[in-house]
């Protein structure tokens, strides 16, 4: 299980204080020379002045972008297909990784309640390793990258690395079997697959490694399998039957 935080769970967190300041309307009051009687006055303004509210949100959170938006939203194709921040160009990973300090970015807990705290600085460094691995395999913007592992920190790091390059990420629930996984991955034809050997669900070890040879062999588009070793108490995992693999790193 993985959670992403603001670096501090207390009510005095700078992020929470800043957002509380925004929620009370102080940022909007300053930007638009307004004065709200209370929160509900601010709330009413937020939906009556919809574009102005979301413009303030964009600027308040200092969204990193390469191209600014030309309008907050475009509803010409209907509400369900509304285009937000039309014209803007940005990278999700760049906005997450703009923080590079010692504050906590990810809290990762496994099935045995072992907990690891990953700082923004460490997250940035680890994403760089994954980005290099992907680029070394020739992955570029628009290529498809797949993930077949549990919700662990390495999955998030792999996703951020994929997003940083501009490639397309897809993940499949590891509880699904071989054929169900193949049916989904065949639709997108991934060039790289991130995977691991096993995970624990409801106190039962699920061995993905036994499914991988058939899955990998069934995906003709795959150039490489990036294998993240599991922290197993048993003997070392034998991955010799998995074609196109390499180990990104080893953990102990």
TrEMBL record:
Residues 98-230 form the AMP-dependent synthetase/ligase domain. It comes from Nephila pilipes (Giant wood spider). Residues 39-95 form the Acetyl-coenzyme A synthetase N-terminal domain. GO terms for molecular function: acetoacetate-CoA ligase activity. This is Acetoacetyl-CoA synthetase. PANTHER family: ACETOACETYL-COA SYNTHETASE (PTHR42921). Belongs to the ATP-dependent AMP-binding enzyme family. InterPro entries: ACAS_N (IPR032387), AMP-dep_synth/lig_dom (IPR000873), ANL_N_sf (IPR042099).
């Amino acid at each position: 299980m993985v959670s992403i935080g603001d670096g501090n769970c207390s009510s005095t967190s700078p992020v929470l204080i800043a957002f509380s300041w925004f929620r009370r309307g102080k940022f909007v009051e300053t930007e638009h020379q307004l004065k709200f009687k209370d929160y509900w006055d601010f709330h009413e303004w937020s939906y009556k002045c919809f574009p102005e509210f979301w413009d303030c949100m964009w600027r308040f959170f200092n969204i990193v972008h390469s191209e600014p938006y030309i309008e907050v939203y475009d509803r010409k194709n209907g509400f369900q297909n509304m285009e937000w921040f039309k014209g803007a160009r940005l990278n999700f990973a760049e906005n997450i990784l703009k923080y590079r300090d010692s504050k906590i970015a990810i809290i990762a807990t496994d099935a045995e309640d072992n907990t690891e705290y990953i700082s923004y600085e460490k997250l940035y460094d680890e994403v760089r390793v994954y980005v290099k691995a992907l680029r070394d395999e020739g992955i570029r913007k628009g290529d498809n990258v797949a993930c077949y592992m549990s919700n662990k920190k390495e999955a998030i790091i792999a996703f951020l690395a994929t997003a940083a390059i501009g490639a397309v990420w897809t993940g499949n629930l590891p509880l699904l079997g071989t054929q169900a996984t193949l049916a989904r991955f065949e639709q997108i034809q991934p060039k790289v697959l991130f995977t691991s050997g096993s995970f624990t669900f409801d106190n039962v070890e699920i061995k993905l490694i036994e499914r991988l040879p058939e899955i990998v062999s069934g995906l003709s588009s795959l150039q490489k399998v990036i294998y993240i070793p599991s922290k197993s108490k048993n003997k070392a995992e034998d991955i010799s039957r998995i074609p196109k693999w390499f180990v990104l790193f080893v953990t102990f």
